[in-house]
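ugh finaly. both done.
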Amino acid sequence: MSAGQANVIGNRTQEADAYDVVIVDAGFAGMYMLHRLRGLGLSARVFEQGSGVGGTWYWNRYPGARCDVESMQYSYSFSEELQQEWEWSERYAPQPEILRYANHVADRFDLRSDMQFNTRVERAVFDERARDWSVTVSGGKIVRAHFVVLATGCLSNARTPDFKGLSDFAGEVYHTGHWPHRPVDFTGKRVAVIGTGSSSIQSIPIIADQASHLTVFQRTPNFSVPARNAPLSPEERDLFRSNYTEIRRKAREEMRNGIYQELPEKGALEESAAERNARYGARWDKGGLTFTATYNNIALDKAANDTAADFVRAKIAEIVRDPEVAKLLQPNDHPIGSKRICVDTDYYATYNRANVKLVDVRANPIEQILPHGLNAGGKTYDFDVLVLATGFDAMTGSVAKIDISGRSGQALNEKWEAGPRTYLGLMSEGFPNLFVITGPGSPSVLSNMIVSIEQHVDWIADCLDYMRANGLDCMEATRSAEDNWVAHVNEVAQGTLFPQANSWYMGANVPGKPRIFMPYIGGVGVYRQICNDVAAKGYEGFTMSAAAPVRRVAASS
């Protein structure tokens, strides 16, 4: 094979340890990316650091872990047969069921044959001369690929705070984002949970039911609404399936968050207090993330937002019997929805249990972990088990773990030192042929992730097909397109209440991380149309090129 042929997309099947595409991680994004590339006849290899598929749902096995998007929507739509045959058992699928679904998909489409497990991608270096990537995986093996697709997920890099004395703790230590692959029994044990984010809110009721005593250390209270989870009847599943075509279309094209739901027509201040409370009450009773969609301006107008926040705060006061505890659990430092709203089962009621204590670490900071407990606010708390529900280095953390070098040896971590910079959340200038699925600058965590994953994967696959058809082998975002997109993402965010919260959307949970609103909040449907328009205009904002043909000099006579 000549040098010229080696640079043609689709020829890497002929080279050892060389692929058209290397995919990093085998979660829902990596699996679907592999499936689409196979359909194009391109060679691909998935490297997954875990021992199985599932991504977030492989690692997150904490008690009560379940999706906050309804199961009938938190699923692939690319295969009609798949969505008709899979039987979801509950309104909100628990982690074991989601993981079974992921394994079913991997088996049904025979994906594992192109996957390598227990293998971490450690380094990726762009070779400007060869116009491809050199990828180093654990063990030091190097493979080459025309393209690299980072399917690393937005919430996959668990963050462990640097607590003084943590290594001295003599009991069991668990992190909700990296839970052991075995049952953990808290029966008869004194347990401490640090953090009150989503994973904590889901796990605390279950831990409290097992433990002899539970102490919750809370820095910042979060808004949570009831899930109202329940088994799905065959009739409910069949009704959903019979309307899947329209449900999926509306989720993709019309919904801001990629979740099919009733769209509000009014703002919160257009109705009386009695009418508002009735509407909020109906949404509260229904349960789920649609609570913040009761009115169309809750994310935009502080006065409107206050009406929803006040309703939830009143519900907390109604549920929690101790007024002082209820007050501590009522968020007052951020608009409702500006941090990801949580969905729970009996979270607030758990604080009515005699074996549960809430500690405010904002007023009583954690000073040191001890061999059998911790000191906070000058007081010692004893326990046998420590659960760290301290979240993730979201959006960028999983990418930052890989040593990525682009043109002229530029490190991606250096380029993103002041905050991530992408065009459409898909590519970053200076890093040709490197795609990010649901990267910063895309709807990602503000949406139904499966909807956003499928949209990105389809866009990337169509792009690679276009390049192959046109004899192109190198693609890169332009600086001007990237600058304009970053400015647009920031402008849209500033028009909402979201930047008012110190959220992980802003990187606020990681010391030293730049405070930049990372996802695109313009809406899934709007974003999809922007991406489609870019492609229709010949991938406007990207440069594409073909390798120069090899010049052969005739031998002198």
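ok and the 2nd:
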Amino acid sequence: MNGLMMNVALSVTSIMEHAERVHGTTEIVSFTRDNPRHRYTYLDAFRRTRQLANGIAGWGLAEGDRIATLAWNDYRHFETYYAAACSGYVCHTINPRLFPEQITYIINHAQDQYIFLDPDFLPLVESVAAQCPDVKGWIVLTSAEHMPETSLSNVMCYETLVAAGDTAFEWPVLDENTACALCYTSGTTGNPKGVLYSHRSTMLHAYATMMPDAMGLSRKDVVLPIVPMFHVNAWGTPYSCPMAGAKLVFPGSKMGDGETLAALINEEGVTMSAGVPTVWLGLLAYLKSSGLRVDTLERIIVGGSACPLSIMEDFDTYGVQTRVGWGMTEMSPLGTVNSSPSDRAAYNDEEFARTRLKAGRPIFGVEMKIVSDDGEEQPWDGVAFGSLKVRGPWICSNYYKLDESDAHAEEGWFETGDVATIDADGFMAITDRTKDVIKSGGEWISSIEVENVATDHPKVAEAAVIGHFHPKWSERPLLVVVRNADGQDLAAEEMLAWFEGKIAKWWTPEAVEFVEELPHTATGKLQKVTLREMFKDYKFPG
């Protein structure tokens, strides 16, 4: 027997309609190239979204056609999100930090029809446009008076396009499984892979992120999404914030500028923010040098890469709660959040620190398991580890236009590529990538745990550990360190001594090498493939 409930489709359109009717007066503030503090409301935003949708409707696109963006976090990008997806097209967000060859590949693979771009990225687009024959037009996200000169053909001004559109638009009724957004992985092991999100998956992910132990969003919040809108939908905040009625503050191109971020937080009353560790290091450095505080800020979500304990402890001094999040492009992206144990008194300082560093518990909707090399599921005891697999309603079932995927080899599960442990309380900890684990003398070493200890050294800016050939032990960890401004005198002996009593003795790196910088992907992730290539001829001392 079925229940007698209405079968209403879960669509992104409903977020827009809800926010417009219920939260219409709530503000959206943006830092843009042509306006350092643009300010309007959800009511204004979605009126303009209808105008934009009318403009796009004249292009003769078919349902499911891809409309791409190369843009910062601001109100125009926000409008494009909704106008494209709610019209039945796919909003394809492109990461401008990728190599031009990768961007060309992505545009052509997705067969993007039109591309909305920030003026900052015009030189990049001009360099690849000739190699993108499917693109029919380029829309520059600015006003007519700020329109830059360009060699591109078929260029349109965004504000001119919006102004010409009627404020009334009949949104199509879409099946909830209709595709609404597309994002490509950073392509660390080959070409980037496309992840195609549905209206249903996006809605469910937005619901989940709002949970108290996830982002904990409400209409009382003022949210500063520093994680880019071109990277996994800014972790869902362009959907969850209007759903909750939270005020949005977009930092535009200033997402890495500590001074601007501090000003936006203090002047707009930001209560919650989300970003990668490097962003928080920049903000903390500015706060320390300026003596300023961020008293309205209650909590931050840190993701994208491992969060050093020092960031958490520094934010503790400002009364800001740090929540570690973990996920992937393939997971929309949120999988786990660590809001720290509620029973703080039950932990000593060392145990509490160790627990804070974990990726957290899976949010409802995400199932996970760890399996050994022979496929046996491992217990949740905090000791056993294995390859981490996940499944859920906002996790991709396959890659876009890719018939076979090793990551989806086991039906119903996605292979994350991470090695993890899960304790009895459900706290998951990433110990390595499957291709990054170090096996020394038949025993496994977690490169991530060694890196976490290394980055806690007061003279270390960044550190990476790779496995390297050793004639006796087969493989030993090599530590590669970037000194910070105060650590130019840091020597190998001091660095290695730092590990004493903090990790197992045999986990201690065999040697340390100092470099000016470490290689990263376009999304800021450490590129260990490149690092191994850099040290392929290295020989351990002695």
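summary for the 2nd one i guess: The first strand starts at residue 27 and ends at 32.
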